[in-house]
Amino acid sequence: MKSERWARKMTKDKTPIIKESILRRITSLEPEAPPGQVSPESKTALTDAEHALCLAATSGCVSAGLRRASRAASRLYDAALRPADLRGTQFSLLIALELMGPSTLTALGGPLVLDRTTLTRNLRPLERRGLLTSAPGLDRRTRVLSLTPAGREVLALALPLWESANAALAAALGEPLAQSLRGDLDKTVAAARETCEVRET
């Protein structure tokens, strides 16, 4: 490291006492690592306990398992909805607007468990295609989203595509497991929200 080369240069031909004094001075000037960060030399291997936690995070992590299942299912539904030029998340947004009617971002994001940034990113292409409109609400800081006639036409095209993909996945799982899974996922959403609220208090 640069500081080590400088230390060797500064202590060259110095007496032991002066060398020690200079090295103490240099050490005191070394910047500390930011919180949560360590220098590259400070950790060369994980302990057995840490390695075991890595294995647990691979096979026993609820979040990782849900994400893998979500990615696999998303590929299936996205492929099925391609003739309607929709992705699964966009299809869910059109469904929500049809069932809920004109809605604000907050009202729409809650049931879908989508944060404002993700919600806005998925709504923009739908608005550009004229499938929904966005207008000021009673409070000028809010926007109210509404499905357009063109949006309902695309939704009508997408519904049988979704139905076919959903039936295919349910058949592959077996209907009892598919029905149980729907209930378990609803419970998971509720439990995760409750746990998150508790941890934030």
DSSP strand count = 3
Please name the fourth-level CATH homologous superfamily of the domain at 84-166. Answer: Winged helix-like DNA-binding domain superfamily/Winged helix DNA-binding domain
Unreliable stretches covering 5 or more consecutive residues: none
- Tally of separate helices: 9
Largest sheet: 3 strands, antiparallel
Q: Can you write the helix and strand succession as a string?
A: HHHHHEHHEEHH
Task: Give the overall shape, derived from the CA principal axes.
Answer: extended
Q: What class, by secondary structure content?
A: mainly alpha
Mean pLDDT: 84
CATH topology (fold) name of the domain at 84-166: Arc Repressor Mutant, subunit A
Second CATH tier, the architecture of the domain at 84-166: Orthogonal Bundle
Strand order of the largest sheet: 1-3-2
Span between termini: 44 Å
Proportion of residues in β-strands: 5-15%
CATH class of the domain at 84-166: Mainly Alpha
Radius of gyration: 28 Å
Percent of residues in helices comes to over 70%
Give an overview in words.
This protein is mainly α. The chain has a domain of 83 residues: Arc Repressor Mutant, subunit A (Orthogonal Bundle), CATH 1.10.10.10. It has nine helices and three strands; from the N terminus they run αααααβααββαα. The chain has a three-stranded antiparallel beta sheet with strand order 1-3-2. Helix 8 packs across helix 9. The longest helix has 26 residues. The radius of gyration is 28 Å and the shape is extended. The model has no long low-confidence stretch (mean pLDDT 84).
